[in-house]
Design goal:
Strand order of the largest sheet: 1-2
Strand content: 5-15%
Number of helices: 2
Length: about 70
């Protein structure tokens, strides 16, 4: 795939000590937490996921996140 003008950022925590990992993950869960826009989230049941959204995801026809209610 082509990514132009974007940064792919991640966390390499395997080589960090536990104290550093905990600090980073606590910040990500707290003051650095990103609130995903509500319009980017689709809520569905497990049945809807299997019948409707998995085929759409595999065909590249969805955007955002699919949140499954259990």
């Amino acid at each position: 795939f082509i990514i132009k003008g974007n940064n792919l950022l991640g966390i390499e925590s395997a080589e960090c000590n536990m104290e550093t990992r905990l600090k980073v993950w606590m910040n990500l869960a707290g003051k650095w937490k990103f609130d995903f826009p509500a319009e980017g989230v689709i809520e569905c049941s497990l049945t809807e996921l299997n019948e409707k959204y998995i085929p759409a995801i595999l065909q590249g026809k969805t955007r955002g996140r699919v949140l499954v209610r259990i």
